[in-house]
Amino acid sequence: MIKFDQVHKRYPGNLEALQNITFEINAGELIFVTGPSGAGKSTLLKLITAIEPPTHGTIIFENQNLSQIKSAAIPYIRRKFGLVFQDHKLLYDRNCYENIALALEINEVSINDVRGRVRAALDKVGLLNREKSMPISLSGGEQQRLAIARAIACRPSILLADEPTGNLDKKYADEIMDLFYNFQDLGVTVIIATHEIPTTSKKHKQLYLQEGNLIKITDQ
Ligand SMILES: Nc1ncnc2c1ncn2[C@@H]1O[C@H](COP(=O)(O)OP(=O)(O)OP(=O)(O)O)[C@@H](O)[C@H]1O
């Protein structure tokens, strides 16, 4: 589904954030991208989602070569990805319902389908009773659940999260991880960048990065 072949990423200023990265991810897998600060975890997610282009190497996503893709095609590729960030990136002047509805409208979901899809997504993350609430009135864990609902409402084939539990205490962090596991059980490919892998009995693959190098890939 995703294949990196000898991928390098150099940012302006000559910093090589990723060097010679080669790996494959299959549909439906649970992947943890780990490594210390500055290892290149976020950069890897940005390359997968075509937010950043690689400097060298080949990235294949669903048989398309992202390294050569025309910029007009990028929005269509991005729709396949659901993105969740540590700081949620919610719209704080819109309520929970509107946060998700707007994402669906941007993704050109038919207006007739928006209401049902927003409510289904809120239901899946346990926030159906908060649809009129403003995000600021939610706890940190609830805000992250809203961010996940927004990502999943767009029905991505891949859900990517960058340090999704970084600001949360353990109880909320465990709830968030359980949500990701639930979506993986439904067939969504889940890729999570994190300093620390949560304890889990779920089968997963780990990509361990250090100073821009892929040091090891383990299956557990
Ligand atoms: N837009 C950018 N321009 C220049 N350098 C960047 C940019 N983004 C990241 N870097 C650099 O690339 C390297 C890898 O950064 P990246 O954010 O991918 O690491 P990370 O493993 O996600 O780190 P953290 O765990 O601290 O978030 C770092 O040295 C960082 O300073």
TrEMBL record:
Q: Does the keyword Flavoprotein belong to this entry?
A: no
The segment(s) forming the ABC transporter domain are 2-220
Instruction: Report the locations given in the UniProt record.
Output: Cell inner membrane; Cell membrane
Write down the InterPro entries for this protein, in alphabetical order: AAA+_ATPase, ABC_transporter-like_ATP-bd, ABC_transporter-like_CS, ABC_transpr_LolD-like, Cell_div_FtsE, P-loop_NTPase
Tell me the membrane topology, using the record's own terms.
Peripheral membrane protein
Its chief place of residence is membrane
Checking Gene3D superfamilies in the record gives: P-loop containing nucleotide triphosphate hydrolases
Q: Determine if GTP-binding is one of this entry's keywords.
A: no
According to the UniProt record, one GO cellular component term is:
plasma membrane
Keyword terms, alphabetized: Amino-acid transport, ATP-binding, Cell cycle, Cell division, Cell membrane, Membrane, Nucleotide-binding, Translocase, Transport
Subunit relationships: Homodimer. Forms a membrane-associated complex with FtsX.
* Name of the protein in question: Cell division ATP-binding protein FtsE
What gene is it encoded by? ftsE
